[in-house]
Amino acid sequence: MGHDPNDPADGVTGRDRLAALEQVSERLREVTEKVEHLTIALQSRDVIGQAKGILMERYGLTGEQAFELLTVTSSNTNTKLLQVAVELVTTGRLSETP
């Protein structure tokens, strides 16, 4: 006879299988969330890099100087750095006021 996966004689109960499935499901949720966060981080990095490139070309700045200008603008306008970068990339302008 073949092996019956529901046979309690194998020492693994339905409850054990359910617990294992719940653990796998929770781990999958955690990994999915991490992938989403990393995707957002990569997209943010790309936009900030584009903004730095615009400032470097426009004003002859180094990458470090361009990033400093973005962070100072972010601080002065009380705007998140990513939003400052998005605005520069989409409009060509840096925010001056909050």
Automatic annotation (TrEMBL):
SUPFAM superfamilies: CheY-like. Coiled coil: none annotated. InterPro entries: ANTAR (IPR005561), CheY-like_superfamily (IPR011006), WH-like_DNA-bd_sf (IPR036388). Residues 28-89 form the ANTAR domain. This is ANTAR domain-containing protein.
